[in-house]
Amino acid sequence: MLSVNMIVFGVIILLIFVVISKSIRIISESEMYVIERLGKYSRTLDSGLHFLNPILDNVSKKVSLKEQVVDFDPQAVITKDNATMEIDTVVYYQITDPKLYTYGVERPLSAIENLTATTLRNIIGDMTVDETLTSRDVINGKMRLELDEATDPWGIKVNRVELKSILPPVEIKTAMEKEMKAEREKRAKVLEAQAQKESAILVAEGEKTAAILRAEAKKEVSIREAEGKARAILALKEAEAEGIRILNSSSPTKEILALRSLESLEKVSQGEATKIFIPSELQNLTSLLAGIREIK
Questions:
Q1: pLDDT at 288 over 50
Q2: Residue 154 CB-density burial (10 A; 0-12 exposed, 13-18 middle, 19+ buried)
Q3: Count of beta carbons in the 10 Å neighbourhood of residue 93
C-alpha cells in the first residue's frame, strides 16, 4: 500500500513539473510568440519571462523580428521588345507585426515569391532590353515600393530588393559583346588619334618656338651690327668734326689747305679716303703748286 502511495505521489510531482514547464516561457531577444487561447488569438509576447495557462494557452507561432534574406530562383520575363530575360532577385524583409504575419497569409514566403515574380514581369514588360540592363536601381526601387505596399497587410516590411543577375538571350548577349568590343576599339583609336594630334601639336609648337628664337637671334645680331656700324660712323664723323675744329682753330693758310687737299687726293688714289679738302679759292693746279713751293 505504501508503494502505491509513493507511485501516486511521484506521478503528481511529475504532473506538477510538466505543468510548470508548460506554464513558463522565456523568450529571447528579437523574438515574439503569438499565443492562442482555446484556438483564438489571445496576445503576443515579447522577449522576457512569461507565464501561460498550460491548459488554455497555446503558442501558435514563434516569430523572428530579424531582417531576413530570401534568394528566389531566376524568373523568365519578357521585355517590351519581346526579349526573354532570366532575372534572379533577392528580397530583404522584416516582420513588423507577428499577428498579421501569422494570420494574414498562408505560407508568407511563397506569397512573397509569387508577388515578386508578377511585379517583376509588370515592370520589365514596360522596358526594353537596354533599359533593363542599365536601370537596375530604378527596377529595384519600383519593386521595393510595390512589394512593401502589397505585404503591409501581412505584417511584413520589404526593406530592399536587389536584382542579383540579369541574363539576356544568347543572341543578344553575343551582339552586346560585339558592340562592347567595337566600342573599346573605337575608344582605343580615338585615344591613339588624340595622342598623335597632341604629339604633332607639341612638335609644331617646338618648331615655332625654335623659329621665333632663331628670328629673334638674327634680329639681335642685325641690331648689334647696325649699332656697331652706327657707332663707327658716329666716331668717324666725330673725328672728322674734331679735325675740322682743330684745323679751324689753328687759322690755316691757303697753302696749308692746299697741302691737305693734296694729301686727300693721295689717299683717294690709294683707296684710304673718300673725302678731300679742296679750297674753293684755288682756281687751278698751277697756283696750288706755286703755293706749295713757297711753303717749302
A1: no
A2: buried
A3: 23
Mark 59-87 as b/e (b = at least 16 C-beta within 10 Å). ebeebeeeeeeeebeebebebeeebebeb
User: Residue 71 forms beta bridges with which residues?
Assistant: 90
For the record, the C-alpha cell of 235 comes out as: 666716331
Residue 78's contacts (CB-CB under 8 Å, 6 or more residues apart) are 84, 85, 121, 124, 125
User: Percentage of the chain with pLDDT > 90?
Assistant: 9
| CA pair distance 289, 44, nearest whole angstrom | 153
8 Å CB contact between 58 and 40: no
Over residues 247-273, the pLDDT tens digits come to: 666 655 665 556 566 565 555 555 544
Query: 3-class secondary structure for 37-50?
Result: ECCEEEEEECCEEE
> Is the pLDDT assigned to residue 188 strictly greater than 70?
yes
CA distance 235 to 237: 5
Closest-CA residue to 22 (of 53, 61, 64, 48): 53
% of the chain residues with pLDDT over 70: 80
Closest CA to 209 of 201, 220, 198, 197: 201
**Tens-place pLDDT, residues 17-31:** 777 777 888 888 889
Q: CA-to-CA distance for 281 and 261, rounded, in angstroms?
A: 12
3-class secondary structure, 2: helix
The SS3 call for residue 123 is helix
Please state the rounded mean pLDDT for residues 101-123.
Answer: 89
